[in-house]
Amino acid sequence: MAFGAQELRVLRRALAHALHPSTARSLDAQAVQDCVRLARDIDEAARESARLRAFLVADLARYRAALPGTAAGYLELLDTVLGTGYLPDADDLAALRALRGNPRAAALLGRCLTLAEQAVRERLAAVTAARSTVGPAPYGPVVVRPRVPGDRTRLHALPGGLTAVDEKKPAPGAKPPAERPAPPRERPRPMPTPAEVFPPKRPARPAAPAQRLAAG
What stretches of 20-161 show up as alpha helix (H) in DSSP? Predict the structure, then answer.
């Protein structure tokens, strides 16, 4: 992007006021209009540069698809697009490796590899800086540690849970209730003897005297 003499004067004045904001009040209406006009021209030039770059990248893809017959035009166009900040992709690297017998292709391959490696390092540095600021990424490995409850933890929903335990606790300063004696344990019932299970049969009673005479 090139600036004319008048645009450079406006740009120098705007930069001076940006470095010393206290002097911005001395700007007249004409100076403000010049700064606004320069900003609009720069925005339009940036948009035009983006449109030209998109056209060159599309044209580069057409030349790359027609290789090896368009090697000369592809290499020249790639050199031009790299000057606009274009980052070569995997297709460009594969095409340059196939054309490495050409000295210009070999030189462009080394340049593209350097740019690709620099871009990877910049992305890794940005990711590392982001992780050091906000912590590990949410998709990283998550270590789940089981939470072991206390020995006397009970369920709130069951009778006799924590609520019941808290109600039984004496109030501060109150006397502790007297402990109730434990109920006596019942003795185990002895095993029955065979005589108790199967008692002996009793002998039949003798007949009365009246019954004996009638029978005789």
Answer: 29-65, 71-82, 90-98, 103-134
